[in-house]
Amino acid sequence: QLYYQVLNLGMIVSSALMIWKGLMVVTGSESPIVVVLSGSMEPAFHRGDLLFLTNRIEDPIRVGEIVVFRIEGREIPIVHRVLKIHEKQNGDIKFLTKGDNNAVDDRGLYKRGQYWLEKKDVVGRARGFVPYIGIVTILMNDYPKFKYAVLFLLGLFVLVHRE
Amino acid sequence: RKNVEDFTGPRERSDLGFVTFDITADILNGKNDLQSIFDWNVKQLFLYLSAEYSTKNNALNQVVLWDKIMLRGDNPRLFLKDMKSKYFFFDDGNGLKGNRNITLTLSWNVVPNAGILPLVTGSGHVSVPFPDTYETTKSY
Description:
The complex is a heterodimer. By secondary structure, chain A is of the alpha+beta class. Chain A contains three helices and seven strands. Chain A has two domains: about 130 residues, Umud Fragment, subunit A, CATH 2.10.109.10; about 30 residues, no CATH class. Helix content of chain A is about 30%, strand content about 25%. A seven-stranded antiparallel beta sheet of chain A has the order 1-2-7-3-4-5-6. In chain A, helix 1 packs across helix 3 and helix 2 crosses helix 3. The radius of gyration of chain A is 19 Å and the shape is elongated. Chain B is about 0% helix and about 50% strand. Chain B is built from no helices and ten strands. In chain B, strand 1 and strand 2 form a beta hairpin. At the A-B interface, strand 4 and strand 7 of A face strand 4, strand 5, strand 8 and strand 9 of B. Strand 7 of chain A pairs antiparallel with strand 9 of chain B. Chain B: InterPro entries: SPC3. Chain B: It comes from Eurystomus gularis. Chain B: It is found in: Endoplasmic reticulum membrane.
């Protein structure tokens, strides 16, 4: 019986992993779903909102789009809007971003000496969103005990659940 | 239009453009012309006026000159006159001088309560030509 429960758990975990990896391929983004961490895009997005991204190379970066990007050397992705683009004939593009709720553009956030973002900095473009749901991830990050409790309960649920 | 140092950017001189504009717009739902854009699932609109042009340096340039957040409940009609651009219209280089083909378009990002985030471009646009010379003095 235990053998069966463990297999069951394994199936669920690997299915979830497959779906996640599948999403990564379909959207072209390494992180197809992100949680909004700051209030810099209010009133459109608030902390805890979930964003769905695509990162298809064929989609050109244009002003007005909401991009999720990483600054070189920093882990935390930022969700802001494209304010300016300059694109060369060969497709090389450099662009500037700004949070809707910020008074100034993001130059102050970029690395020292960095004035523009490039395609390589982009994690994805926000195509859709769902409010509030991501709060759980934020809670789990800020309160590790909560994370363990959630994982423990999930594990318990799977083991105890009878088909 | 002047050629000045962009203090926020790389330390080279770039063209800085000054544009004043009027905006008259009626934002409607694309599907049914008589219906307002603010249906049950629209939380807000992020409107922006962008200038698009080509230069020797760059095949495509887009600069947002002005933006506005329009919340559900606001009047989806715009009647603005003599607006100055909210953001500095710096070119990446000196491509504004003598540029006859700068197109201004009004677009908006529809932010739903939940769901897809489309970008819509308004019909109608304006072409702005820049003069061949720089202005030496102008208060802005």
